Amino acid sequence: MIHRKLSEATWREVRAAGERGIALLPIGSQEQHAAHLPMGTDTLLAEEVLDRATALLGREGDVAELVRLPALPFGHSPHHLFAAAVSLSAATLGAVLDDVLDSLATSGYRRIMVVNGHGGNDEMMRLAVKRFALRSDVTVAACSYWTVTAGEGDGERPDVTPGHAGWFETSLMLAARPDLVRTPVPARGPVEPPPLFDNPPYPGLTVERHGEWARVGGSTDDASSADAERGRRLLDARAAGLARAIRAFDAATR
């Protein structure tokens, strides 16, 4: 397998890779992550999982050429503007994804995968790839990194996965970028009444109530028990799952 970065390739290499390879686009956000995690957490984690996955595939050597795009660092984050965020509107994010995907198709790529790191991007990302496949002769895939996992004893806690600035993301950041985690990680007690975005009153409902993110202090759950070793297992499981997803996408679309 050849793995290269788009920003380091020549145009002829880009064209040649597009004929046989898969373009990989990580997308994230810049937004508040409580008092202990950096604004770029979602972007950093999407990049970390993707880079670990491509490293695994590079050792196994059974996948077509992979071309890693620079991460799109801005996402749809209006719900975090109560503190701080750099947010694109839903229409703007959709338009940006449309333009990036169209540019890749014009540059010769026929297989593209988007890897997302921010929950607020998920709906726009999936709509963008569906629209893209309708107007272009391509095959395109999309996932959020926390949804793909090898599921091999990774210490999962589904009740707080992925959450926001809580146990899951903090554990991952302690493993990936401990230099950026402010310590001690503050504890967060129960919030009453529980926020409806995280605890809908009935299964299948999506509920948003004005002011909830500010009321809960910018995080979904208590991060004080986050652990770097468990974070490493969580990252490894996501990377292994993403590597398997890329391999399956490659095999199904050759």
Automatic annotation (TrEMBL):
Keywords: Hydrolase, Metal-binding, Zinc. Its cofactor is Zn(2+). Coiled coil: none annotated. InterPro entries: Creatininase-like_sf, Creatininase/forma_Hydrolase. Pfam families: Creatininase. The keyword Kinase does not apply. Transmembrane segments: none annotated. SUPFAM superfamilies: Creatininase. Signal peptide: none annotated. The keyword Iron does not apply. Belongs to the creatininase superfamily. This is Creatininase family protein. It comes from Actinacidiphila acidipaludis.
